[in-house]
């Protein structure tokens, strides 16, 4: 449980910062799909889905870092 929280909490904070930075410059009403059609969601829905997307990406990055750290501490080679 502790490892999960060590991964999820920094990812949550990073996702919040990403949300602030992105939507300081992007209006959710101007978001379009890859096909060029406007997204038919409310602003709040765009904010929410974006936050969870950012959180997922940040969680993957934190989990990869935790995994790499675990692999390094478990290896016999203590060199740089």
Question: What can you see in these coordinates?
Answer:
The chain is built from 2 helices and no strands. The chain has helices at 2-23, 43-74. Helix 1 (2-23) packs across helix 2. It is elongated, with a radius of gyration of 17 Å. The two termini are 30 Å apart. The model has no long low-confidence stretch (mean pLDDT 89).
Quick structural overview:
The protein has 80 residues and is mainly α. The chain has helices spanning 2-23, 43-74. The longest helix has 32 residues, at 43-74.
Tags for this model:
2 helices; mainly alpha; elongated
Count of DSSP helices? 2
How much helix is in the residues? 55-70%
Decide which structural class fits the backbone. mainly alpha
> What is the total tally of β strands?
0
Query: Helix-strand pattern, N to C?
Result: HH
Which parts are unreliable, with pLDDT below 50 for 5 consecutive residues or more?
none
Strand percentage, roughly?
Answer: under 5%
Measured between the Cα atoms of the first and last residue, the distance is: 30 Å
């Amino acid at each position: 449980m502790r490892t999960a929280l060590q991964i999820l909490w920094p990812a949550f904070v990073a996702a919040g910062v990403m949300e602030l930075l992105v939507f300081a410059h992007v209006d959710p009403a101007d978001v379009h799909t890859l096909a060029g059609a406007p997204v038919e969601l409310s602003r709040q829905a765009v904010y929410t889905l974006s936050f969870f997307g950012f959180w997922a990406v940040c969680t993957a990055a934190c989990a990869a870092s935790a995994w790499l750290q675990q692999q390094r501490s478990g290896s016999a080679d203590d060199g740089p």
